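User: Hello! My lab partner asked me to get a predicted holo structure for this protein. The small molecule is flavin mononucleotide, SMILES included with the sequence. Please write out the structure tokens.
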Amino acid sequence: MQRNSVPYILGFCTAICLVCSVIVSTAAVGLKEKQEQNKILDRQKKVLTVAGLIKETEAVTPKKVQELFKKRIKSIIVDLKGGTLDKAMTKKAKTFDQQKAKKDPARSTSAPKNRAGVKRLPKHALVYLVSKTDIKEDGKGFALDKYIFPIEGKGLWSTLYGFIALAPNFNVIRGLIFYDHAETPGLGGEVENPSWKAKWPGRTVYGPKGSSPKSWGKPKIKVVKGLAGPPSKDPHKVDGLSGATITSNGVTHLVRFWLGENGFGPFIRHKLGLKQASKGGK
Ligand SMILES: Cc1cc2nc3c(=O)[nH]c(=O)nc-3n(C[C@H](O)[C@H](O)[C@H](O)COP(=O)(O)O)c2cc1C
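Assistant: Hello! Below are the structure tokens for the protein in complex with flavin mononucleotide.
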């Protein structure tokens, strides 16, 4: 057959496409497990970072991440609406994929109208408990230092995914991290800037500093336009991202949503021994 004939060219293209698709699908299937493992590892690394157990820029081996995670973090799964621990699901917390659960109609509900742009809520959500000391093999030796909650919500261009760390009183912020978003670098993308993230620890989520937990209402924390004072002066305010008011407002809404009554509020109330709020998160 002539090399420049139409049947030859078509046959050649088909053969190349077939070979390539076999290579790509073999790679996709073969690497799936590795990808899942990497996803878990990446999530663990972010949790350790917001927990203050590793530095963001620190090069840590996967082995070290897994070891630290095992020694210092307890993962639990909570029933979001009821605010209680789900013991059976907690046993499988390591492989629980909250994003998948959120997309599964059987394992999620539609979210009430909200300013964070959250459309669906998983029925169950992950909460991480950080220990001050190493947890022993038998689970003993756990000394609660922080809670870490997954958070997400709309910015300008994208959904921002992150974690917020709170002190055991659920009021004092210990850290904030965003690990996935598509905001503009230098504008909304400054949510990743270490000096902006350093503005969060020490601020308070709910009532005025020192107020009784019983008086805590809706989250008051807010990313303001412009500058905020130190936590002692402005406990509920964080500096805005300049030129990125929409992303800044998005951060306010998403943090408030997840720490409010439609997010982890029922869990927080349950842990503090407070009565659950009335229907609709009021
Ligand atoms: C190319 C481009 C990218 C932008 N990216 C963002 C962004 O990531 N986040 C954001 O809030 N605003 C972004 N803005 C600006 C918004 O359109 C809007 O002007 C801004 O949020 C208002 O904030 P300011 O009041 O602080 O100026 C971008 C604007 C342009 C032209």
